[in-house]
Write a structure and sequence with these properties.
- This protein has strands at residues 3-8, 17-22, 25-32, 35-40, 54-61, 67-77, 84-86, 103-110, 123-128.
- It contains no helices and nine strands.
- It has one domain: Rieske [2Fe-2S] iron-sulphur domain (Rieske Iron-sulfur Protein, 3-layer Sandwich).
Protein backbone atom coordinates (compact mmCIF):
# COMPACT_ATOMS: atom_id res chain seq x y z
CA UNK A 1 0.00 0.00 0.00
CA UNK A 2 1.36 3.36 -1.01
CA UNK A 3 0.84 6.22 1.48
CA UNK A 4 -0.56 9.56 0.33
CA UNK A 5 0.00 12.74 2.31
CA UNK A 6 -3.44 14.37 2.54
CA UNK A 7 -3.32 17.05 5.24
CA UNK A 8 -1.69 18.18 8.46
CA UNK A 9 -3.02 16.74 11.70
CA UNK A 10 -4.06 20.18 12.93
CA UNK A 11 -6.15 20.71 9.76
CA UNK A 12 -8.65 17.98 10.75
CA UNK A 13 -10.14 18.71 14.18
CA UNK A 14 -12.08 16.16 16.24
CA UNK A 15 -15.48 15.54 14.68
CA UNK A 16 -14.46 16.88 11.28
CA UNK A 17 -14.17 15.11 7.94
CA UNK A 18 -12.38 15.69 4.67
CA UNK A 19 -13.57 14.26 1.34
CA UNK A 20 -10.71 13.10 -0.88
CA UNK A 21 -10.07 11.54 -4.27
CA UNK A 22 -6.95 9.38 -4.35
CA UNK A 23 -6.11 7.34 -7.45
CA UNK A 24 -9.69 7.78 -8.64
CA UNK A 25 -11.14 6.52 -5.35
CA UNK A 26 -13.56 8.73 -3.41
CA UNK A 27 -12.70 8.51 0.28
CA UNK A 28 -13.85 10.19 3.47
CA UNK A 29 -11.20 10.92 6.11
CA UNK A 30 -12.61 11.40 9.63
CA UNK A 31 -11.23 12.49 13.00
CA UNK A 32 -13.19 10.39 15.50
CA UNK A 33 -12.20 11.75 18.92
CA UNK A 34 -8.53 11.93 17.94
CA UNK A 35 -8.51 8.64 15.99
CA UNK A 36 -8.18 9.12 12.23
CA UNK A 37 -10.17 6.79 9.98
CA UNK A 38 -10.82 6.61 6.25
CA UNK A 39 -13.63 4.80 4.44
CA UNK A 40 -14.89 4.50 0.89
CA UNK A 41 -17.35 7.25 0.04
CA UNK A 42 -19.95 4.87 -1.36
CA UNK A 43 -22.78 3.14 0.47
CA UNK A 44 -22.88 -0.58 -0.41
CA UNK A 45 -26.69 -0.39 -0.53
CA UNK A 46 -27.18 1.85 -3.58
CA UNK A 47 -23.94 3.81 -4.01
CA UNK A 48 -24.91 6.98 -2.13
CA UNK A 49 -22.10 9.39 -1.16
CA UNK A 50 -21.84 7.76 2.27
CA UNK A 51 -19.25 10.12 3.74
CA UNK A 52 -21.57 13.10 3.28
CA UNK A 53 -24.00 11.61 5.82
CA UNK A 54 -24.52 12.59 9.46
CA UNK A 55 -22.04 11.44 12.09
CA UNK A 56 -23.75 10.58 15.36
CA UNK A 57 -24.05 7.84 17.96
CA UNK A 58 -26.69 5.19 18.48
CA UNK A 59 -29.33 4.27 21.02
CA UNK A 60 -29.35 0.81 22.60
CA UNK A 61 -31.67 -0.87 25.07
CA UNK A 62 -30.00 -1.85 28.32
CA UNK A 63 -30.96 -4.99 30.28
CA UNK A 64 -33.30 -3.00 32.50
CA UNK A 65 -35.11 -1.75 29.34
CA UNK A 66 -33.70 1.75 29.67
CA UNK A 67 -32.39 3.48 26.58
CA UNK A 68 -28.76 4.55 26.41
CA UNK A 69 -27.10 6.76 23.79
CA UNK A 70 -23.62 5.40 23.06
CA UNK A 71 -20.69 5.85 20.66
CA UNK A 72 -21.38 9.50 19.94
CA UNK A 73 -19.40 10.62 16.88
CA UNK A 74 -18.53 7.06 15.79
CA UNK A 75 -21.52 6.14 13.60
CA UNK A 76 -21.97 7.40 10.03
CA UNK A 77 -25.51 7.45 8.63
CA UNK A 78 -26.00 7.20 4.86
CA UNK A 79 -27.66 10.38 3.53
CA UNK A 80 -30.03 8.48 1.20
CA UNK A 81 -31.59 5.66 3.25
CA UNK A 82 -30.12 5.99 6.74
CA UNK A 83 -27.99 2.84 6.76
CA UNK A 84 -25.48 3.12 9.61
CA UNK A 85 -21.78 2.28 9.53
CA UNK A 86 -19.07 2.13 12.18
CA UNK A 87 -16.49 4.79 11.30
CA UNK A 88 -13.77 2.86 13.12
CA UNK A 89 -13.91 -0.21 10.85
CA UNK A 90 -16.44 0.31 8.02
CA UNK A 91 -18.83 -2.39 9.28
CA UNK A 92 -22.57 -1.82 9.07
CA UNK A 93 -24.38 -1.58 12.38
CA UNK A 94 -27.31 -3.81 11.38
CA UNK A 95 -25.27 -6.69 9.91
CA UNK A 96 -21.52 -6.25 10.43
CA UNK A 97 -20.61 -9.73 9.17
CA UNK A 98 -22.24 -9.31 5.75
CA UNK A 99 -22.38 -5.60 4.98
CA UNK A 100 -19.52 -3.15 5.15
CA UNK A 101 -17.78 -0.39 3.28
CA UNK A 102 -14.05 -0.40 2.56
CA UNK A 103 -11.92 0.99 5.39
CA UNK A 104 -8.43 2.25 4.61
CA UNK A 105 -5.36 2.25 6.83
CA UNK A 106 -4.51 5.69 8.22
CA UNK A 107 -1.19 6.62 9.84
CA UNK A 108 0.30 9.75 11.33
CA UNK A 109 3.84 10.31 10.12
CA UNK A 110 6.46 13.00 10.06
CA UNK A 111 6.92 14.73 6.73
CA UNK A 112 9.06 12.23 4.77
CA UNK A 113 10.91 14.85 2.70
CA UNK A 114 14.30 15.38 4.34
CA UNK A 115 16.98 16.53 1.94
CA UNK A 116 18.99 18.40 4.59
CA UNK A 117 19.41 17.76 8.30
CA UNK A 118 16.39 19.45 9.82
CA UNK A 119 14.11 19.22 12.81
CA UNK A 120 10.65 18.10 11.70
CA UNK A 121 7.88 19.90 13.55
CA UNK A 122 4.87 19.19 11.38
CA UNK A 123 3.00 15.89 11.29
CA UNK A 124 0.82 14.85 8.38
CA UNK A 125 -2.00 12.39 7.89
CA UNK A 126 -1.37 9.61 5.36
CA UNK A 127 -4.01 7.35 3.79
CA UNK A 128 -2.75 3.99 2.51
CA UNK A 129 -4.47 2.50 -0.54
Amino acid sequence: MKPYKVCKVEDLKSGERKLLTIEGRNIGLFNVKGKYTAIKNSCPHQGAPLCEGRVEGMTVVKKNRELEYIRDGEILRCPWHGWEFDLLNGNSIFNPLKCRTKAYKVTIEKDPVETYPVTIENEYIFVHI
